[in-house]
Design brief:
It comes from Paenibacillus chartarius. The structure is a single chain. This protein is an alpha+beta fold. The chain has 6 helices and 7 strands. The strands form 2 sheets. A 5-stranded mixed beta sheet has the order 2-4-5-7-6. Helix 1 packs antiparallel against helix 2 and helix 3 packs parallel to helix 4. The mean pLDDT is 88. Bound molecules: adenosine-5'-diphosphate and magnesium ion (MG). The site of adenosine-5'-diphosphate has 22 residues, from helix 4 and helix 6. The site of magnesium ion (MG) has 4 residues, from helix 4.
């Protein structure tokens, strides 16, 4: 997937705007949230407690989006340290284990050499892996035909870098979706932000790596992250 100038400009702009907006919107949201909470007993008396709950959950959703914006505007220089790839992947897969189980799906982490170390900003790379696994788990629920959903994660060292792959047997993507995958705000989900992959793309670029994607409708998708040695 080629990175276009358009993509770069949009991301840089997104960073500036999001940081500014986040601060201006977060504070009023916090006070709205507080007052609604104080009003809950009154709403209950009116038999309208449900309205309060909806307002609270919508505020939480707005906050989540702001959080993702902020994440995407973080300083780009990675704070690199030596970290264990096996440990990083264990942490990430563990986070989604219960969600996958609830959907009757499986997250499979193939054995990763305990000596495989990477020189990365662990927080940023963890964010990338989380974004990719999250997307995979989200599409697994949509699998038809009684096939068990599965995400297979593996990592290995090759001559040209450390490769981490995430292979799902979810619904896959058509060519049009594939071509826009890394565009900021591109989403096919009702409640998506379309930021996960654009942010991941930038983080990996900043690490001198690359993201490769293969997908086939009805078969599944594989994301391959390449990190320099
Ligand atoms: P969001 O998850 O908020 O939609 P992302 O940037 O994480 O934003 O993903 C963008 C889009 O890429 C998704 O809406 C989806 O259409 C597509 N996508 C990403 N990962 C997968 C996957 N594993 N299988 C199918 N489609 C995917
Ligand atoms: Mg996502």
């Amino acid at each position: 997937i080629e990175q276009s100038a358009y993509h770069n400009d949009k991301l840089a702009m997104l960073g500036k705007i999001s940081a500014a907006i986040a601060h201006e919107i977060r504070n009023p949201l916090t006070s709205i949230r507080g007052f609604i909470q104080l009003l809950l007993p009154e709403l209950k008396k009116l038999g309208r407690e449900e309205y309060g709950r909806i307002i609270l959950s919508e505020i939480d959703r707005a906050n989540e989006i702001i959080y993702e914006f902020l994440n995407s505007s973080k300083p780009s220089a990675p704070d690199k340290r030596q970290v264990s790839m096996a440990e990083l992947l264990r942490e990430v897969t563990l986070l989604f284990q219960s969600e996958a189980l609830m959907k009757g799906c499986q997250i499979e982490l193939l054995p990763v050499s305990e000596t495989l170390m990477v020189d990365v900003d662990a927080k940023q790379i963890k964010q990338v892996f989380l974004n990719i696994v999250k997307n995979a788990v989200e599409v697994l629920g949509e699998r038809e035909g009684g096939i068990q959903g599965r995400v297979r994660v593996q990592a290995e060292r090759r001559d040209d870098g450390i490769w981490v792959s995430f292979e799902d047997n979810g619904k896959g993507m058509d060519a049009k979706t594939l071509s826009r995958l890394f565009d900021p705000f591109f989403t096919t989900k009702l409640e998506g932000t379309g930021l996960g992959l654009s942010v991941s793309y930038r983080i990996i670029k900043n690490h001198g790596g690359a993201i490769h994607v293969e997908s086939e409708v009805g078969v599944g998708t594989t994301f391959r992250v390449q990190l320099p040695l």
